[in-house]
Write a structure and sequence with these properties.
The structure holds 2 protein chains of 2 kinds.
Chain A lengths: L1 H25 L44 E9 L5 E9 L2 E6 L6 E2 L4 E3 L2 E6 L38 H7 L2 E6 L6 E9 L5 H4 E11 L15 H14 L25 H10 L5 E5 L2 H13 L4 E5 L7 H7 L2 E4 L18 H8 L3 E3 L10 H10 L4 H8 L2 H7 L14 E4 L10 E6 L2 E3 L4 H9 L4
Chain B lengths: L7 E8 L7 E9 L2 E5 L8 E4 L4 E4 L1 E6 L38 H6 L3 E6 L7 E4 L1 E4 L16 E6 L2 H8 L10 H22 L9 H10 L3 E7 L2 H14 L3 E6 L7 H7 L2 E4 L17 H7 L4 E3 L10 H10 L4 H6 L3 H7 L16 E4 L10 E6 L2 E5 H4 L7
Parallel strand pairs in B: 1-4, 1-5, 6-7, 10-11, 11-12, 12-13, 13-14
Antiparallel strand pairs in B: 1-2, 2-3, 5-15, 7-9, 8-10, 15-16, 16-17
Classes of the chains: A alpha/beta, B alpha/beta.
C-alpha cells in the first residue's frame, strides 16, 4: 500500500532532512538553497519604465498636470480597436486624435511598440470597495431590500480608491462599475479611471439596472425570492406594477383642478418606467444555460433593452444569445465548474459565442485585479478566439457599440483615450509605458509603486 | 489513456531544463519512469515522439493547492479544508479529506502541473498536515502520494485565526496577534516537554497533536507558514529561533519584500502570487514586484496558485512574474525547481535532468507566451494528459 511505502521512504529521508535543518540553523543562510545572493535587493529596475519614472506632478485624480495633450508618436504598431491594425503613427492635438496611420512620420519613435485604445472592463465593484474583509470600505451593496432600483453607484464611487491607479497602470483605463446584492441591485455606470471628482470620472451614468437570475437572485433579504420560480414571478410583478401611465385621453371629461396635478412618482417608479421605455438598460446576470434563456425570455416579453452578464454556460445556448442581439459581459476564465451554476463552463466559451455572432465585452479579475483583463483576453485567444475579436472585446470597442461611449477606437475626431505598450498588450509579460484618458496623460504611479520605491533597497 | 512505461524519446524539442540553459533541438529519453538521457545519441530502436517547434519543461509544482479538500463544485458538502474546532489541530491530515474526483485535477494536469502540495486551510494556527501528491491517474489518493517527499505541516498567523476564533469568548480561543503568539509558545513548550517525557523511562501515552509538534521541533516536518505582514514574520521568526525550529516556506508572503533580509538569513523561502492583493488588510501592501525583490535577495521563490482555476494557467502566472521584474529563468524556476527545493524533492523532480523522475510537459509555444497551451503531460513517464486525444479539459462533476 502506498501509504506504507510513503512511511518507509520518509523514514529514510528524514535523517537527511534533519541534518539539513541542523546545518541551516548553524551556518550562514544558504546551505540548503545554493543561489546567488544579492541582499541589496538586486538590480530590479523601477516598474515604471521611462518616461513615467519621472516625478511629474499630478492632480488628485491622477492626471498629469499640463492639460490637454498635444503629441505625435510614430513607427508604432497601432491596434485601432475595431479589430484592424495599422503600422504608422498617431497625432494628438489639444487632447483629440487628428491623424492616425502610415502618414504620420514625425514625433517620438516608438520603434515598433504598440499603441492601443486601452482596456475597458465589463463589470466590477472598483471604487465601491477597498478591502474585501473590512466592512467599513464596502459600498457596493445597498441590500435594504431584495429590490433596490433607484440607487446609483456614482453616489458611492471613491475616486481616491487605491485600486484605481493599480488598474490604470496596466492600461485598464475605465470600466463598468456595478452594484451587487439582492434580486435588483441598483444602477451601474461607466467610469473612467482618472479624475478627482465623480462627475469628472463618470463616462456614462445610469448605464444599466442590475438584475440577478438564477441562484444569485435568491436569498434572505426582505422580499427576496427563495427559488428560480420566485425570481421569475417577482420580476414579472415588478415590471407589471410599473407600467408607464397611458397617455392622457383627450375625450376624458375635465376633472377638478386638484386632479390635474401629475401623480408624484417615486424614484423607483421612475426607474422602472425608464426601463419599460427602453431609456434605461437592464443588465441581466445569468450563468446557467437555462437562466440565460430565462433572462432572454424576460427581456423579450417586456421589450427591454438588455445586456447579459456572466453567461458562463453561454456556449450551450449561443444561438439563442445571438438571436437576442444582446451584448454579453463575459469573464473568460473566472467561470469554472466551481459552483452549481457553472458546471458546463468551458475555455472555448468566448470563441463559440463569437462564432455564433454574439457581441461581448470582457470582464477582468474583480476590483483589485482588473489588470487581469488583458490576460483573460489572451487566454480566450489561446482557446480559439480570433485576436481581433479579443481586442474589440477588451479595448472598449464593443462596449462603445453597446453604450455609445467615446472610447475603443483610435480614429480621427475621438478624444485621446489610449495607451502605449512595449509589445502585444494582451501578453502577460508586457508592460504599459504611458496612458492618456480623455485627452490628458495619466500617471502610472500607484500606492504599489510607492511601496516598491520605499523598499527597493532596505534601510 | 496509455500508461506506458516502455522507453521513449521526445525529440527535436527545445528543452527548458531549468537546471541549465535551454537546449534547442534536443532529445529527452525516458525509461522506467525516469529521465535517462538528455541530448546525445538515441538508443537504437527507441520509440520517438517528434516535438519539432515545441518546448519541453519539467512538470510544474504548486506549493499551495486546496484541490481535493475544497472539491468543485464548492458547497457545504465539499468544504473539507478547515478543521476549525480549535487553533491547533496538527493531528488532522489533508490526505484524509482529499477527493481525487475533484474535476479541477484533470484541468490542472492539462496545464502541465505534476506535483501539488495540498494544504489544509488557514483558519487554524496549526491547521494540519500537508499531502504532497503527484497528479497520477488514480481513483483513490494513496497511489498519488509523493512517497519521497518529507512530511510537511500548514501553519497560519495574522488575521485568519483571530477572525475565526475572535468572535468566541472562550479561554481556549484567540482574539489578537499577541494571543496567537502566546498560543504558539504554549503549544511548542508543551511539545518540548512531551518529547522529553516520551524519551523518559515512564513515557506518557501518545498524543496525535503533540507527536506532530514534537517532530516539527526535531526538524522532521517542514513548516509552511501562511503569513502576510512583515511584523508577523518577524514575530514568528523570534519564536522559531527561540524553540529552534525552522520555517521552511512562508506562503502568500505579500510583505516579505520588506524583510527579505530576515528570510535570506534563515534560508526561508516563499510561495506567492504574482499579483493578488487587497482582499484583507494584511494583504493591502502586496506589490507585484515583491516576488522579484525577494528572489533577488537570494531567497527561493515559488509561484503558487492557491486557486483551482489559476493552477490551470501556471505558465501565465509565471509570465506575469516577468512583467513585474523577475528574469525569465527565475520565473520558470519559480514553478519548477524552487518549489521542489522547498518541498525537499529537488533530487527527484523540478528539472529536466538524467536520473530525475520523468515528470514533463510539452508546449506548442514557449510557455511564457500567454497563448501557449500544454499539449502533453507525463508523470513518472506515463502520459497523463494528451490534448490531441482529450482536447481542452472542460470536465465537470
Amino acid at each position: 500500500m502506498a501509504v506504507d511505502k510513503e512511511g518507509e521512504s520518509r523514514r529514510q529521508l528524514l535523517a537527511g532532512f534533519g541534518a539539513l535543518a541542523a546545518t541551516a540553523a548553524a551556518s550562514p543562510a544558504h546551505a540548503a538553497f545554493p543561489k546567488e545572493v544579492q541582499t541589496s535587493g538586486g538590480t530590479l529596475t523601477s516598474p515604471l519604465g521611462a518616461p513615467n519614472a519621472d516625478n511629474r506632478p499630478t492632480d488628485r485624480g491622477g492626471f498629469i498636470v499640463g492639460g490637454e495633450a498635444t503629441f505625435t508618436l510614430r513607427n508604432a504598431r497601432i491596434l485601432v480597436g475595431d479589430g484592424t491594425e495599422l503600422v504608422g503613427g498617431i497625432r494628438i492635438e489639444r487632447g483629440e486624435i487628428v491623424e492616425v496611420g502610415p502618414g504620420v512620420t514625425t514625433g517620438e519613435d516608438l520603434a515598433g511598440a504598440v499603441v492601443f485604445p486601452g482596456f475597458f472592463d465589463g463589470g466590477s465593484t472598483i471604487g465601491l470597495v477597498e478591502i474585501d474583509l473590512e466592512a467599513a470600505t464596502h459600498d457596493e451593496s445597498e441590500s435594504v431590500d431584495a429590490v433596490v432600483t433607484a440607487a446609483r453607484i456614482e453616489d458611492a464611487y471613491n475616486t481616491d480608491s487605491a485600486l484605481i491607479p493599480v488598474a490604470r497602470r496596466q492600461g485598464v483605463l475605465g470600466g463598468l462599475v456595478l452594484p451587487t446584492g439582492g434580486l435588483v441591485s441598483g444602477q451601474g455606470a461607466w467610469m473612467r479611471f482618472a479624475g478627482e471628482r465623480v462627475v469628472e470620472a463618470t463616462m456614462l451614468g445610469a448605464a444599466g439596472l442590475v438584475i440577478h437570475f438564477g441562484h444569485g437572485g435568491t436569498g434572505a433579504l426582505p422580499n427576496q425570492p427563495k427559488s428560480r420560480m420566485g425570481v421569475a414571478l417577482k420580476l414579472r410583478e415588478l415590471i407589471e406594477a410599473n407600467k408607464a401611465p397611458d397617455p392622457p385621453d383627450p375625450k376624458a371629461k375635465k376633472k377638478k383642478a386638484d386632479d390635474d396635478k401629475p401623480e408624484e412618482l417615486t424614484r423607483s417608479q421612475k426607474a422602472w418606467h425608464a426601463v419599460r421605455a427602453r431609456e434605461l438598460k437592464v443588465i441581466l446576470e445569468a450563468n446557467r444555460a437555462d437562466d440565460i434563456l430565462s433572462a432572454i425570455a424576460f427581456a423579450r416579453e417586456f421589450s427591454l433593452d438588455a445586456v447579459l452578464g456572466g453567461c458562463a454556460e453561454g456556449h450551450l445556448v449561443a444561438g439563442d444569445i445571438a438571436a437576442s442581439g444582446f451584448t454579453v459581459l463575459l469573464a473568460p476564465t473566472s467561470t469554472q465548474p466551481s459552483d452549481w451554476e457553472t458546471l458546463n463552463a468551458a475555455y472555448e466559451n468566448p470563441a463559440r459565442l463569437h462564432a455564433a455572432g454574439v457581441r461581448f465585452v470582457f470582464r477582468g479579475g474583480g476590483p483589485h485585479n482588473l489588470r487581469e483583463l488583458p490576460t483573460e483576453a489572451c487566454i480566450a485567444v489561446a482557446n480559439g478566439l480570433p485576436y481581433s475579436a479579443a481586442i474589440a472585446a477588451a479595448c472598449g470597442h464593443n462596449a462603445a457599440a453597446t453604450w455609445s461611449l467615446p472610447i475603443g477606437t483610435l480614429k480621427v475626431g475621438r478624444p485621446a483615450t489610449l495607451a502605449t505598450a512595449e509589445a502585444d498588450p494582451l501578453q502577460p509579460r508586457t508592460r504599459i509605458r504611458r496612458a492618456w484618458i480623455a485627452g490628458r496623460e495619466v500617471s502610472l504611479r500607484s500606492r504599489q509603486t510607492t511601496l516598491f520605491e520605499r523598499f527597493r533597497t532596505l534601510w | 489513456m496509455p500508461l506506458s512505461s516502455t522507453a521513449f524519446a521526445i525529440v527535436h524539442a527545445t528543452v527548458l531544463t531549468i537546471s541549465g540553459p535551454p537546449l534547442s533541438d534536443t532529445a529527452v529519453v525516458v525509461d522506467g519512469g525516469r529521465i535517462v538521457q538528455v541530448g546525445g545519441t538515441l538508443p537504437a530502436g527507441v520509440t520517438t515522439l517528434d516535438a519539432t517547434g515545441q518546448f519541453l519543461t519539467p512538470g510544474f509544482i504548486d506549493l499551495h493547492s486546496h484541490m481535493g479538500v475544497y472539491a468543485w463544485p464548492g458547497g457545504n458538502g465539499s468544504n473539507d479544508g478547515n478543521e476549525a474546532v480549535e487553533p491547533f489541530t496538527p493531528r488532522v491530515r489533508a490526505l484524509d479529506s482529499f477527493d481525487p474526483e475533484d474535476p479541477a485535477i484533470p484541468r490542472a494536469r492539462a496545464g502541465g502541473i505534476t506535483t501539488i502540495q495540498v494544504l489544509p486551510g488557514s483558519a487554524n494556527m496549526m491547521g494540519g498536515q500537508a499531502a504532497i501528491l503527484k497528479l497520477r491517474l488514480a481513483r483513490t489518493v494513496d497511489p498519488m502520494v509523493f512517497a519521497e517527499a518529507p512530511r510537511a505541516i500548514k501553519m497560519a498567523c495574522g488575521e485568519n485565526p483571530k477572525r475565526v476564533y475572535g468572535n468566541v469568548i472562550d479561554d481556549d480561543q484567540v482574539q489578537t496577534r499577541m494571543g496567537e503568539i502566546a498560543i504558539l509558545r504554549q503549544e511548542f513548550l508543551r511539545a518540548r516537554e512531551y518529547a522529553t517525557a516520551r524519551a523518559s523511562k515512564s513515557p506518557p501515552p501518545r498524543d496525535l497533536d503533540l507527536d506532530v509538534v514534537a517532530d516539527v521541533l526535531a526538524g522532521k516536518v517542514r513548516v509552511n507558514l501562511h503569513c502576510y505582514r512583515s511584523h508577523d514574520i518577524a514575530d514568528w521568526f523570534r519564536v522559531a529561533d527561540e524553540f529552534g525550529f525552522r520555517i521552511v516556506t512562508i506562503h502568500h508572503a505579500l510583505e516579505t519584500y520588506k524583510v527579505r533580509d530576515l528570510l535570506a538569513a534563515r534560508g526561508t523561502g516563499i510561495a506567492t502570487w504574482p499579483d493578488w492583493w487587497g482582499f484583507k488588510q494584511e494583504a493591502f501592501d502586496g506589490i507585484p514586484e515583491g516576488a522579484a525583490l525577494v528572489s533577488n535577495a537570494g531567497v527561493p521563490v515559488a509561484t503558487h496558485s492557491d486557486s483551482a482555476s489559476h493552477i490551470q494557467r501556471f505558465n501565465i502566472e509565471a509570465a506575469k512574474m516577468v512583467r513585474y521584474g523577475m528574469t525569465e529563468a527565475d520565473a520558470l524556476e519559480s514553478i519548477t525547481l524552487d518549489p521542489a527545493r522547498l518541498l525537499g524533492v529537488d533530487t527527484y523532480v523540478g528539472s529536466v535532468e538524467a536520473g530525475k523522475q520523468a515528470d514533463l510537459a510539452l508546449w506548442d509555444k514557449h510557455p511564457l507566451d500567454g497563448t501557449s497551451r500544454c499539449q502533453k503531460t507525463w508523470i513518472d513517464g506515463a502520459l497523463v494528459y494528451d490534448r490531441a486525444v482529450e482536447g481542452t479539459p472542460n470536465g465537470r462533476r
